[in-house]
Specification:
alpha/beta; Aldehyde Dehydrogenase, Chain A, domain 1; Aldehyde Dehydrogenase, Chain A, domain 2; 2 domains; seven-stranded mixed beta sheet; six-stranded mixed beta sheet; globular; binds nicotinamide-adenine-dinucleotide; Ald_DH_C
Length: 437
């Protein structure tokens, strides 16, 4: 531990000294660094896909589509717009001071810490890094120890393209995070669980370091009676079973109008067969659960309701098949924490209002998905329920847009990023009033 603390201290000191030289600030330097990252990711593409297969059994298509493609898209969008974003922004000045001009100057915070989780280990390390670099910061990345092959390659890639005093990776377990969190960073960007988010925020408070917390939670999906059920089933199955349900914005549980319940369940079964084959346990490309601890936690949920679909699991292979549970009690264990696996509890309703009350009573979700064409109902849900972000008649896709800042609210997080917002979140906005006479 003492060694880790010394290592963390030395790294932060080295980066702060480098930051203070001002070398990371010119926009050309940032653009070159982003190009280096793009080239590095392209060069390491095969290794990234191999690591994602080793760590989570992600197929090539899933690994590319849900990790590499998203990072490259963010890089290209940032490279296209960075010169506009870095420019000082003129704003009006009060008429009481006619000789003055007012300008907002985005400036880098300094040395940033990025702590990443294991579920999208490549996307969620490189995504925030793009913002940190774009805004002109130095950064230390701490990847998740639960995906060791990806952690190693992130470290190798970063070492190959950047000097340590600019961007560095410190691999390791909780002790490594703890050692890093003792240091004074200028910004901390954390993605992970709500419980660890609290620890990170407490540590940040010691140094008054600003934080972004991208956390988790139980995200509901609602299917109303007028919804296109085939479409809803397709989009729910994609959202819930991508990465075997280990997605922060996966629909956690489903609320369905009782009039369309039977038909929706049939459509979900058909969609799972269509997407993953008749026997998902034999599907070599279905991701596995990250470790036995999570496998055991999830397996215990399999008996928390009536199995409407799936229900089988294999501990040696860490696989759990896509499972739908009916007759679930709101007080059962599966409804007490984020599921984060391929298990979907379903509740029926005649009147949606008590269901909305149930959602509001609980911690604010990271996402919410509503399937209906009824605009009055869409407005009601958006007005009544607070949640991070979400989709109407779709799942997950709000988080792939450069134009929609992505983040949680309340226990699902604070702050947001993606697109220009990633640049803004890693920038301090320095407001200057200048008098000319
Ligand atoms: P986690 O909180 O266990 O770990 C995240 C990171 O924090 C890892 O790098 C880990 O080493 C470190 N860490 C763990 N315990 C720590 C401690 N006591 N002190 C300091 N650092 C510690 O989360 P996870 O299991 O890797 O990820 C799953 C969670 O992340 C889920 O809740 C999921 O919803 C959430 N998540 C959120 C988003 C988002 O964008 N909002 C994205 C992905 C995952």
């Amino acid at each position: 531990m003492i060694f880790l603390e010394q290592q963390a201290k030395q790294l932060v000191t080295t980066q702060r000294t480098f930051f203070n030289t001002g070398q990371t600030k010119p926009v050309e330097y940032r653009i070159q660094a982003l190009h280096n990252l793009r080239e590095g990711i392209e060069k390491y593409q095969e290794r990234i896909l191999d690591a994602l297969r080793a760590d989570l059994n992600k197929s090539e298509a899933e690994g590319y589509g849900s990790e590499i493609r998203i990072v490259l898209g963010e890089l290209d969008y940032t490279l296209e717009h960075l010169r506009e974003w870095v420019a000082p922004r003129s704003v009006p000045t009060s008429s009481a001071m006619p000789d003055a001009v007012s300008t907002i100057y985005p400036e880098p915070y300094g040395v940033a810490l990025i702590i990443a989780p294991w579920n999208y280990p490549c996307q969620l390390a490189f995504g925030p890094l793009i913002g940190a670099i774009a805004a002109g910061n130095c950064a230390v990345i701490k990847p998740s120890e639960l995906t060791p092959a990806t952690s190693r390659l992130i470290s190798d890639l970063i070492q190959e393209i950047y000097p340590e005093e600019y961007i560095a990776v410190m691999e390791g377990e909780v002790e490594t995070s703890t050692a890093l969190l003792k240091e004074k960073f200028d910004y901390i960007f954390f993605t992970g669980s709500t419980g660890v988010g609290r620890i990170v925020m407490k540590a940040a408070a010691e140094h008054l370091t600003p934080v972004t917390l991208e956390l988790g939670g139980k995200s509901p999906a609602i299917v109303h009676q007028d919804a296109d059920l085939k479409l809803a089933a397709q989009r729910l199955v994609r959202g819930k079973f991508l990465n075997a349900g280990q997605t922060c914005v996966a629909p956690d549980y489903l609320l369905v109008d009782e009039q369309v319940y039977d038909q929706l369940i049939e459509e979900i079964k058909a969609e799972v067969r269509d997407k993953f084959g008749d026997d998902v346990m034999q599907n070599k490309d279905f991701p596995h659960i990250v470790n036995t601890r999570n496998f055991d936690r999830l397996s215990a949920f399999l008996t928390n309701g009536k199995t409407l679909m799936g229900g089988r699991s294999n501990r040696d292979q860490l696989t759990i098949e896509p499972t739908v549970l009916g007759n679930v009690d709101w007080d059962s264990p599966v409804m007490q924490e984020e599921i984060f696996g391929p298990i979907l509890p379903v509740f029926t309703y005649r009147d949606l209002n008590p269901m909305l009350d149930e959602i509001i009573r609980r911690p604010k979700p990271l996402a919410l998905y509503l399937f209906t064409e009824n605009e009055a109902l869409q407005d009601q849900v958006l007005n009544q329920v607070s949640f991070g972000g979400g989709c109407i008649n779709e799942t997950l896709s709000h988080m792939t847009s450069h134009y929609l800042p992505f983040g949680g609210v309340g226990e699902s997080g604070m702050g947001s990023y993606h697109g220009q917002q990633s640049f803004e979140v890693f920038s301090h906005h320095k407001s200057i009033l200048k008098r000319t006479k």
